[in-house]
Specification:
Blueprint (H helix, E strand, L loop, with lengths): L31 H9 L6 H8 L3 H8 L13 H17 L17 H10 L3
Helix pairs in contact: 1-2, 2-3
C-alpha cells in the first residue's frame, strides 16, 4: 500500500451526507441531516430544504417554486411530489426531442435530463 493512502469504507450513514460543502450563502444555516430526516419522514420541505435535497442552489429552487404546474402548496413541497414533477418534466423534454424525417420516430436512448436539454436546445426550430 502506498504511504499516506487510506481505505474508505462506506457506511449506510454516508449515503445521506453531503458530498461537498455548500457554497450557497442562503443554504449555510440548513442542517443536511435534519432535511434528509424530513424527506425520509415524508414531511413538507420549504424552498431551501428542497434545494438541499435536490442539490441545487436556493435561487434555482425558488425559480421552480414559481413555475406554473410546480406542486408547491402554501410555500412547501413534498419530496415525492417533486420527484413526480421532475419525472414529468423529463418525459416532456424527451418527447420534444427531434424526430427523424419521413414521420418515423427513432429510438432515442434514455438520456439524463441535462443531456436531453442540450440536445433539445441544439435542435433546429
Amino acid at each position: 500500500m502506498l504511504k499516506g493512502a487510506e481505505t474508505t469504507v462506506m457506511t449506510p450513514q454516508d449515503i445521506d451526507t453531503p458530498p461537498t460543502p455548500m457554497h450557497d450563502k442562503q443554504l449555510q444555516g440548513i442542517a443536511f441531516e435534519a432535511v434528509m430526516a424530513k424527506r425520509r419522514l415524508d414531511q413538507a420541505l420549504n424552498a431551501k430544504e428542497c434545494a438541499v435535497c435536490a442539490g441545487v442552489s436556493y435561487s434555482t429552487a425558488r425559480s421552480w417554486f414559481h413555475l406554473p404546474g410546480f406542486p408547491v402548496i402554501n410555500g412547501v413541497i413534498f419530496w415525492q411530489d417533486f420527484v413526480q414533477w421532475r419525472a414529468d418534466q423529463h418525459r416532456l423534454m424527451k418527447s420534444a426531442l427531434p424526430q427523424a424525417s419521413g414521420g418515423t420516430t427513432t429510438e432515442t436512448p434514455a438520456l439524463p435530463p441535462r443531456a436531453a436539454q442540450i440536445l433539445f436546445d441544439a435542435s433546429p426550430s
